[in-house]
């Protein structure tokens, strides 16, 4: 029994505990987790059905036949002009309840529900998350390699951060460098934010050119065999102001305090509090406007979330980001992000890119 079959059996057991006949999955990361093949079918109906015995069946448009063949499981294909929802309805049968993941769009779920009015559906995300939340050794090794590549990308992009270069040009350079280090692409569109743009946590790179005296946030990530990385470093061009130094030190200390708080049994809200307390005590609490972190794996954002509302306890094998930030409107922002693996001893930090203040000051 290979790892994917083992995962499907565990999913079937979870479905039984919920009283479901099985699960219907369509999110690309769930395809990958339960079959080893990531399928992104766009607007076309594509589902992995796992019944109560753990037996799988894949249904997709005929243009994805090669993907389904690589999965090595029973499958069916539909073609243009056929009623794809009716094919899936027949597979689900009559009566009972099925779990369905949040990746199935309403424009597929609603027609399916009209066809199987005696079948009910529950959201299966919690059951799937429970399986994906703790990474196994192979998953952790892939995440480590993805983060090693991220460190190398940060090292190489430094040489391109200089006055006169635009945010868009840096974003394009990041794409090239990721390919050089072995990633098939980037795990999300990069954030390159200079000066006042850095006060927007999810700033989109634009034509704005870098200048001496700018803080520059670079937030980027790539892949290793489907598993993602996510890293943020904030650089400064020239001699930093006292205000920037104060903000940077507060964010760096918040990053380190949150990492130090990671250990089994600690609640994620307590880790968030460890970061937030540092920033509040420095006088910048109102400018830390997002959660401290998010889980990573086959998705760039997945549970567990490091936020004030999450009272779930840390368990070994969980992998997540620690990324506090301060954003001063009209001036600049600072964010420092590392990925960590929770172990029995505490946090194993996956990123090694330098982050002390003297490491991120670039001469002009």
Please explain how this structure is put together.
The chain has 364 residues and is of the alpha+beta class. The protein folds into 2 domains: 3-132, Creatinase/prolidase N-terminal domain (Creatine Amidinohydrolase, Chain A, domain 1, 3-Layer(aba) Sandwich); 134-362, Creatinase/methionine aminopeptidase superfamily (Creatine Amidinohydrolase, Alpha-Beta Complex), CATH 3.90.230.10. Helices cover 36% and strands 22% of the residues. The protein has 11 helices and 19 strands. It has helices spanning 3-18, 28-35, 65-71, 84-92, 106-115, 125-132, 137-157, 167-180, 242-261, 268-281, 357-360; strands at 22-25, 47-51, 56-61, 75-78, 97-100, 120-123, 191-194, 215-220, 223-224, 227-228, 231-237, 293-295, 302-306, 319-322, 325-328, 332-335, 338-343, 346-349, 361-362. The strands form 6 sheets. A 6-stranded mixed β-sheet has the order 4-3-2-1-5-6, sandwiched between helices. It has a 4-stranded mixed β-sheet with strand order 7-8-11-19. Helix 9 (242-261) packs antiparallel against helix 10. The longest helix has 21 residues, at 137-157. It comes from Alicyclobacillus vulcanalis. Keywords: Hydrolase, Metal-binding. It holds the Pfam family Creatinase_N. Residues 141-344 form the Peptidase M24 domain. Residues 7-132 form the Creatinase N-terminal domain.
Note the main attributes of this structure.
364 residues, alpha+beta, Creatine Amidinohydrolase, Chain A, domain 1, Creatine Amidinohydrolase, 2 domains, four-stranded mixed sheet, 11 helices, elongated, metal ion binding, Creatin/AminoP/Spt16_N, Xaa-Pro dipeptidase, Creatinase_N, aminopeptidase activity
